[in-house]
């Protein structure tokens, strides 16, 4: 008999070192699963400066110019459509083309935010650029209401939203203590075609917010906007002079630009995990999207309600604006108190 085939005693050293096959498989499976149970590696703090970070700001500026800046000028389309292509439609009906476009800019935020958190900004900006440009091209050959709606509201609107949120989230993740300044500089691209005051309104208040507190800056700015509407714009209806309206137009860009620029910084300030900044910003912009969707139709209806009242034709719209802005300032104050308490002199 071949000794190699002989069975060994159970207590022999060779048998003692043998491990059942099932045990080996079980051990290997446990080792394979161990890395999956380990927590994700923590993300370090943003660089808060440097060549790459400021290059992102420059790219964000260009994205704001072509997305948010495009929507800032859509009021021109309302007038053009009323006088030319869509003369047979009411002002409120035409306003839905523009309102849906504004709604999608903010309403797409949750989806775009999730895409950003998972894949970064490259996919958003690339696809968004194609849709935005394609939509504008289709506007140029459209003549019917549904064609303009699909081209401008849907295609261009979704494309501009992807560009806007891709840029906003990217800039926010590269900065911390100077996040307000960075977002303010990037968002100034949206007002490059406007007057010089709105341009300053998007840069300096967010920079000030980095030093005295972003919530404090936002509350003061929005409150200032409410004062301008209630104290200057509404009385201008009966002044008989264009001076109050000119003063209002020159100053109102400051609170308007400040709020648009500092809102992402506010969300970033209360976000502890920067990896979720996309979803958090998305949720915030989704809420504001409903104001963009309903704002212009409501404005059109209020202006029509004042038809025949002469200089007082816009008074209902002005009152509505003043009340809603005041409510916004109150809600910002409530958010600040909720996060920092009643210590009014504290930087927050």
What descriptive keywords fit this protein?
348 residues, mainly alpha, 73% helix
Written account of the structure:
The chain is mostly helical and 348 residues long. The longest helix has 29 residues, at 145-173. 73% of the residues lie in helices and 0% in strands. Residues 1-40 and 193-198 have low confidence and may be disordered. The protein starts with 12 loop residues before the first helix and ends in an 8-residue tail after the last helix.
Task: Please write out the topology.
Elements: H1 13-16, H2 21-37, H3 51-66, H4 68-72, H5 75-83, H6 91-107, H7 109-119, H8 122-139, H9 145-173, H10 179-187, H11 196-212, H12 214-233, H13 243-269, H14 277-305, H15 315-340
Helix pairs in contact: 3-9, 3-10, 5-6, 6-9, 6-14, 7-9, 7-14, 8-9, 9-14, 10-11, 10-13, 11-12, 11-13, 12-13, 12-15
Q: Find the count of extended strands (DSSP E, 2+ residues).
A: 0
- Radius of gyration, in Å, reads 28 Å
Overall 3D form: globular
Give the fraction of residues assigned to helices.
Answer: over 70%
Helical segment count: 15
Distance between the termini: 89 Å
Q: Mean pLDDT, as a whole number?
A: 81
Main β-sheet: number of strands, strand sense, barrel status?
Answer: none
Strand-residue proportion:
under 5%
Q: Which stretches are low in confidence, meaning pLDDT under 50 for 5 or more residues running?
A: 1-40, 193-198
Secondary-structure-derived class: mainly alpha
**Helix/strand order:** HHHHHHHHHHHHHHH
Please outline what is shown here.
It is built from 15 helices and no strands. It has 348 residues and is an all-alpha fold.
């Amino acid at each position: 008999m071949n000794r190699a085939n002989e069975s060994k005693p159970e207590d022999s050293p060779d048998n003692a070192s043998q491990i059942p096959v099932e045990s080996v498989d079980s051990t290997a499976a446990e080792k394979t699963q161990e890395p999956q149970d380990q927590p994700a590696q923590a993300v370090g703090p943003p660089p808060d400066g440097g060549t790459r970070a400021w290059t992102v700001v420059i790219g964000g500026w260009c994205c704001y110019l072509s997305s948010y800046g495009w929507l800032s000028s859509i009021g021109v389309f309302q007038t053009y459509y009323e006088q030319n292509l869509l003369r047979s439609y009411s002002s409120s009906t035409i306003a839905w083309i523009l309102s849906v476009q504004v709604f999608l800019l903010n309403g797409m935020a949750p989806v775009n935010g999730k895409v950003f958190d998972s894949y970064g900004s490259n996919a958003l900006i690339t696809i968004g650029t194609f849709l935005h440009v394609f939509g504008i091209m289709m506007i140029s050959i459209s003549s019917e209401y549904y064609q303009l709606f699909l081209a401008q509201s849907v295609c261009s609107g979704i494309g501009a939203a992807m560009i806007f949120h891709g840029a906003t989230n990217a800039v926010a993740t590269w900065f911390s203590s100077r996040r307000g300044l960075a977002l303010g500089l990037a968002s100034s691209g949206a007002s490059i075609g406007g007057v010089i005051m709105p341009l300053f309104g998007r840069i300096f208040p967010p920079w000030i917010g980095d030093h005295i507190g972003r919530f404090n800056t936002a509350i003061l700015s929005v409150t200032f906007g409410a004062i301008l509407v209630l104290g200057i714009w509404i009385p201008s209806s009966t002044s008989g002079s264009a001076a109050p309206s000119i003063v209002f137009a020159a100053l109102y860009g400051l609170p308007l630009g400040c709020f648009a620029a500092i809102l992402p910084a506010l969300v970033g300030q209360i976000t502890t995990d920067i990896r979720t900044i996309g979803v958090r910003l998305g949720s915030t912009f989704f809420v504001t999207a409903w104001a963009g969707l309903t704002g212009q139709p409501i404005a059109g209806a209020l202006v029509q309600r004042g038809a025949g009242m002469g200089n007082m034709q816009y008074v209902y719209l002005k009152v509505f604006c003043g009340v809603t802005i005041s409510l916004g300032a109150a809600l910002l104050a409530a958010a600040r108190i909720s996060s920092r308490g009643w210590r009014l002199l504290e930087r927050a």
